[in-house]
Amino acid sequence: MAQPITVSPEALAERVSRIFLAAGLSPLQAETLAATIVAGERDACKSHGIYRIEGCLRTVAAGKVQPQAEPELQDDGSPVVRVDAKGAFSTAAFAVGLPVLVARARQHGLAAMVVNSCTHISALWPEIEAITAEGLAAMAMCPSYATVAPAGGSAPLLGTNPFAFGWPRKDASPYVFDFATSVMARGDVELHRIEGRPLPEGTAVDRDGNPTTDPAEALAGAMLPFGGHKGSAISTMIELLAAAMIGDLTSTEALDYLGTTTLGPHHGELILAFSPERFAAGRGDPFARAETLFQAILGQGARLPSQRRFEARKRAAAEGIPLTAEEVEMLERLERAPFGAQA
């Protein structure tokens, strides 16, 4: 029986990367995907941590990811940078396009990265933080597969459709939020099911459209958008901007393509980068003005989004990432046979 351990983020990333390499992923896909998954563990966001490894492997085994694909940058010199992932995981496509996105945003004040034909199975905040680290503000969004009913509806039509934003700060961690437009991320519903915990009221409906707190019934039925019609409208906006507008799959089309919700969703992604200095155009220091706002928020005793993540990150850097015996056993099993549990 495996024992609980504590491991550094770097060592865990190397271990996860080796699992993906053994499963046939290219070095770029393996390294970038492992880094993003371990970022979830490091930041105490278990729903985006190593729990996701098996879903990635299932998707590869099902032939819905091209493990050796090399994303292709399509750069015409304009503020719209395109990356054809060619069926790879989105993390690899983002890594290919990031340097050009940053350069275009600095040149024009605003730039967009369009990623097509990717499998997106990760959080958005690692991408946002890669952009804020360059002194740029950022937004990112993508559809998913149809698991969310629109406000007033009763059947899956929209995805959980995450949306993220980041603002760079010179002497502090960036201001970052990253949330699903459903009441709860699907990964969190899965964790509730695994742990036998009921969902909060108002999270989901069963397959007959009746409210439920049973995670299994929710997964068989539909989740609900946060904030009623407001969350539903934002989710629909993401379907339009990050699917219809960029010539990629909507959440309904992604589900049709996969035929199941047990695999990573295949679709596109839209990332925007902004230069605050270019937009301010000398009308004051945008970073100083932002700090005034942040300090006013903190001065009321409120927290900035992601503060808990950044605190967990500091602990992980100093003390390592604790893994349960079950998590260690999963890693050991996947190291022995990456596809052993996927048949």
TrEMBL record:
<comment type="similarity">
    <text>Belongs to the LDH2/MDH2 oxidoreductase family.</text>
</comment>
<dbReference type="GO" id="GO:0016491">
    <property type="term" value="F:oxidoreductase activity"/>
</dbReference>
<dbReference type="InterPro" id="IPR003767">
    <property type="entry name" value="Malate/L-lactate_DH-like"/>
</dbReference>
<dbReference type="Pfam" id="PF02615">
    <property type="entry name" value="Ldh_2"/>
</dbReference>
<protein>
    <submittedName>
        <fullName>Oxidoreductase</fullName>
    </submittedName>
</protein>
<keyword id="KW-0560">Oxidoreductase</keyword>
<dbReference type="InterPro" id="IPR043144">
    <property type="entry name" value="Mal/L-sulf/L-lact_DH-like_ah"/>
</dbReference>
<dbReference type="InterPro" id="IPR036111">
    <property type="entry name" value="Mal/L-sulfo/L-lacto_DH-like_sf"/>
</dbReference>
<dbReference type="InterPro" id="IPR043143">
    <property type="entry name" value="Mal/L-sulf/L-lact_DH-like_NADP"/>
</dbReference>
